[in-house]
Amino acid sequence: MIETQDYKVYSLHNFDQIPQINQYLNADQIRAIEVVGHVLPFKVNNYVIDELINWENVPHDPLFILTFPQKDMLEKEHYELVDQALKNEIPLSDLRKIVNDIRTELNPNPAGQQDHNVPIMDGQRLHGVQHKYDQTLLFFPSHGQTCHAYCTFCFRWPQFIGDKNLKFAQNETSDAVKYLKRHPKITDILFTGGDPMTMTASRLKAYIEPFLDPELEHIQTIRIGTKSLSYWPYRYINDKDSEGILELFERIVKAGKHLAFMAHLNHPAELKTEAVKIAIKNIKKAGVEIRTQSPIMNHINNKAWIWRDMWNTQVKLGLIPYYMFIARDTGAQHYFSVPLVKAWQIYKDAYRQVSGIARTVRGPSMSAHPGKIEIVGPTTIDGDEVLTLNFIQGRNSDWVKRPFFAEYDEKAKWLDDLKPAFGKNKFFFETELIDDVKLN
Length: 440
Ligand SMILES: *Cc1c(COP(=O)(O)O)cnc(C)c1O
Ligand code: SF4
Description:
Bound molecules: pyridoxal-5'-phosphate, iron/sulfur cluster
Oligomer: single chain
CATH superfamily of the largest domain: Aldolase class I
Number of strands: 15
Helix content: 25-40%
Shape: globular
Radius of gyration: 22 Å
CATH architecture of the largest domain: Alpha-Beta Barrel
């Protein structure tokens, strides 16, 4: 039996009330949370604090690093700027300017999300949706733009700091439904955020119900991207409206849709509690399939054994490993990023140690402007050391599954760092990417 839990949430303004903070952290570490927390979003709840973080292992604990700002997440000069500003108690408006300037330098909108993926219907840009790959429409419910806790690596971080220009949101589904009716090739709608599972059951129902319209028969899969399974599993056990949530899941399945619950899980420690196991059972009982994904990150999960254990534990609990991502080029990327070759090595070392049942996972994959690009691995062709790459998804679907080659580079961390192999000056897709206005 899991008892009903009080939900306690902490951020920059009250984290000094977390008992473990004063017990386990020194003054420097507490100061770092305060300084970095002014720039990157910070929010954590009592479940993460009491059940997931191993405080004996702090500051190295991966779940601590995943949710608490760390000094090195800011470049030294940025850190000192904010540290000084706070010490000098400068006016709030001046502090805001300093913070905003730093945020602007942290590439708040990677992979051209803001400009390139917003579809146009009847001459109007459709806010709150993105359509990049043929089959899948992304939908950002405006009430789901927060999370139970914030991950320090998150590429969605601008959405949490209240900059309206950077948010994608809409509280209306009608435009999206209309768009889907005109695009019969779309088979998937992906509810994302933030975390849509922070919404109440009734609100979530109001968002999802319109997509069950019989005229949208071509929509076969409804996906929900969420971190709630591991940040607040009580959502599926005994929260106020847990029953409502599970009934909604059943309703979607009964309407003939595949409901794909895309769980963001970054470390096997997230699967160790009794609560998460019960939550998984309840979700699966509703007829829902749970798939999992995570970026590979320094300080959190940059070891093959972590991925091996994570995938194995997932399979044992009935989850389907789906993606390993490369950390995006945004926010604290310098802190988290693992070079592409290293990521491939870890992926390979983990992959070879798990059975075929866990090899449903794909990656490591970069969600870059042209598409999702898989690091297939290094090889030598005619004496040239190269890195083989492959589109898992392409802005143009014709690029998918066409292997291509970059010069071998152990330091490269993102697509921009790679050079085409064999002395070529462009990758095959680059000409088209620039020329084809349709792609915008
Ligand atoms: C990853 C992603 C999808 C989904 O891709 P799948 O390979 O079908 O999981 C859809 N749209 C965007 C913009 C994405 O980044
Ligand atoms: S739960 Fe997902 S959207 Fe929310 S902070 Fe973490 S990575 Fe970002």
